[in-house]
Structure formats: structure tokens, C-alpha cells
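Quick log. Single chain, no ligands specified.
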Amino acid sequence: VCAGKNVFRGYRVIKPASHGPCHALILLRDCLRFRTARPFGRRVVGLELLGREGPILALSAYIRHTTGDGLEDLDRAIRWAKSRSPRVIVGMDGNGHNPWWGPATTTTNPVGELIENLIMELDLEIINHSDCPPTFVSDMGHSTWIDLTLGTRSGALSVLDWTVDTGFLTGSDHRAIFFSTSSRPLRSEVFRCKAWDQVDWDAFSLTVSRACLTEGLLPHPENRSERLPDAAAIEHQVGRITAIIQEAIDRHEPEKRICWASKPWWSPELSSERGHLRNLQNRAVRLGTDHDWCLYRKARRRFTTAVRKAKAFAWRDFCARVNRSEMWTSVQRILKPYQRLQVADLGPFEG
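-> predicted structure:
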């Protein structure tokens, strides 16, 4: 799974790491800590949501309505998720009709029968309410119950307030399904700061110089012999210079987002190279020629080398800035977001 371009402010888009168009994705808040899952195909995506009571495995899937494509990938994903945590929750556009998750008068179709077999085989529970409104309403007014929320026993017990919101505008024929969980996920502060390493200092200096010249704040040769202004005038000029510099900062200095998953070694150059690599990959997949695949492999080697050098440089810079007294504090700060390893304090030797 890879994180796609963040087109929703405050959210992260998680989509399948596979060639071609994806059919499922997860929209996750930036403040939530997670681990990406292994790829399972274009129709299934998953992540491991970290929590204080243990992780929750969240899966999203889209099943083809005619052939049931995606059920085999979903089967593998659920088996993998159950090996990671007892709490697994699956949200899916199943495109299957069955009275198990619809009205009692619903006629089971072939895809619905396949989903029923999957539920029985993997010992899952249906979280949908039997008396819920339709989850899909077409433009012609045709209503069906084809969207499912499944879970393991522990996952289903952690789901609260499951409901179909008929008034929420989704921009789709599918209606929004909302629920909360009893688990408290690990959160991390997400804030924005100035990206000083990305500033165009020439343009910044030019803006400050022009603004100071307009305000008459730059020294002129003919004025050097004049008496210095009084304290009030100096305070006024200092205030104007401060305002000019702040306006230049707001204009020329971009912001960057800092969170627990931020990589200190990442740079705009790597982002550009990664975008170029993806373009070559998409072209190679689309055309399939040996020449295009050769260009993609060369670009991949260049990108891998650039990432390795960036990591090595960041590590050397980190080691150069950390002294002996701050070493273990820095190591603990690095390891803390992952909640995996703890660095114990040194104690007296006994025995």
C-alpha cells in the first residue's frame, strides 16, 4: 500500500500499490498513527490502525458485480489481518444481494452467495443492521443493500453506533455509513512550519529591498550626515521593517507538514524524481515495450541510489549535531512514535 497525493487537507489517501487504476481506497486523518498493509490487488486496500489497546486492521474492498472479482484478494487480506490482530473491520461495496444483510425478501444472487460463503469460512460477523435503510439508491430510485460492514468477533464488539446516513451528501449513489469504535487510536500532533530550506533567497531579498526603498527605510548617501532620529522614530522604523520582513516570509517561504511519519531525509528533489519514476512506470505498463521498461529500471536505480544517499547524509548530520549528553534522549524521541522498542536507563551493576 502506498500513500497517494494528499488532495484532502488534513487527510491521507491510502490506495493499493498496484499497476493500473485502483478500485478501493481509505481516507485517513493525518493525526492517526498507522502501518501500511501488504498489497492484495487493485480491489482491496488495508492498514493497521495503532491503538492503546492494540491495533485494529481496517480493510476496504470493491467486488465486481458480475463475476465477484476481488473476493479472492479479500480472502487473503482477511486471513493476513487476522494473523496480525483479533480486531478486524471490513468495509466493502460487495455488489451482492442476500437476506443476511438486507430485507428478508431479498433474493440471493451469485455474488451474494459467494460473499455468504466467505463470511462462513472466515468466521466473520455482519455489522449491518437488518432494519437499516438501503445503502445504494440509483438515480431511477432503485434501492439495494449491497454495502457491507464485516468484522471478526472482537472487531464487531468494538463497533458502536453503526448507521446509514440518508441525509449525508456523498456525490454518489451509495449512502454514507458511519460508526465509531470503542478503541482509542494513537494520535500524533500534526503541525505546519516554514520550509526554510526551500526559500528562494534572491527573490526574498529583492522583495525586502523594494519594500524598504518604497518606505524610505534604506540609508542614502546624502542623509548620512544628518542627525539620528529620536527613539519614537526608531521604534516606528523597526516596526515597519519587521512588518516588511514578515510579509516577505509569508510570500516566499512555503509551509511543510510535520507529523510522526515525516522523513527528515526527504527533499523536493526526491519528490520530483519519484514523480518522474511513476510516469515512466505508467508508460511502461501502458505500452509494454522493452525500451520503456529499460528506462523505468534505470530511473528506479537512480531513485534508489538518491534515497540511500539522502538517508546516509541525514544520519551523518544527525550524529554530528547530537552530543553525548543528548544521545539517549534523541534515540528515545526517534523510537517513541513506533511504540516498539524502549531504551532502558542504565543502572548500577549488581553481582
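The first strand starts at residue 2 and ends at 3.
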